[in-house]
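Sample intake sheet
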Amino acid sequence: MTRMDASANSTPSASVPLLQLRGISKRFVQPVDLAGRIANLLGARHAPAVVQAVSDVDLEVQAGEVIGVVGESGCGKSTLGRVIAGINPASAGEVSYKGTRLADMTAAQRHAYGLGVQMIFQNPMASLNPRMRVLDIIGEAPVVHGLVAAADKADYVAGLMRQVGLDPAYAQRYPHQFSGGQRQRIGIARALALKPELIVCDEAVAALDVSIQAQVLNLFLELRRSLELTYLFISHNLGVVGHVSDRVVIMYLGRVVEVAPTEEIFSRPNHPYTQALLSELPTLDTQRRDYQPIKGELPSPLRPPTGCAFHPRCPHAMPRCHAEQPVLRTLATGHLSACHLNDAAAAAPSPTP
């Protein structure tokens, strides 16, 4: 894609994604400890431990779209969200916002990106400062960044609290005085306070009761309609993602293994890992007899398998899967999958009429 010169508050055209990732990777390196360094002086060969949390991810997010990112714990989806939100810098690859790469942004554009992409975290208690009142948790950042005058903070916070279903009379309370669902609404209001265009929701309903989950999901949908928001919705639950997303990205051990519109994922899943995740979804169908849990455990990112990372757990693994890493291939419009079975199916001769 040709890079565009964008002003700090420009709006992307329909042909330019709001957010674009190209080859994003994130590595975490644990240095050798003191004992290891001493052992190395005596001839040992202790090396730093490297965790490849995210590997070579490409993704485009259009304005107004809801992208669901799904995978087991440890697949790298939360790390990817933190890279997008600017919390963790990428180890490799490029992030572009409104057509401009982060590396090429002016100070004003970088500031606009920092405000325009916000994150809602999984644990609403841990993500809120227990020593701050709700008035300051929500209102401090917009005042600091000049979006609201200090004299107008209370009214601004009251409006946001009403918008997320909280009583403004509670603005002087502390986080521990609220329920889990109310604390998550405070986190949502804090994200909305900076008037973002893209919100990264990292397991935003996972810590809530099922009935509260439904209320918060409906709130997300209502805010999307009223504020024209874009979401990157991270979850381990395909059922939740299917309720809110336009497209679904399936990740396994740091890599994207399948991307497709939500309806396509549920009706025609291609990758064996996607099929396994769907088979584990609870159902009210009493005739269902095909439930098969995914065998084995997610491999360690410190020692990932060779070839296709899913092959130790895949019922369709073949010798090629052990040696060669599959690449994402287009199966249909908007549907990509990384599986050697697709190559085998394409190479099979057509049946004679």
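Comment: The radius of gyration is 22 Å. The chain has twelve helices and twelve strands.
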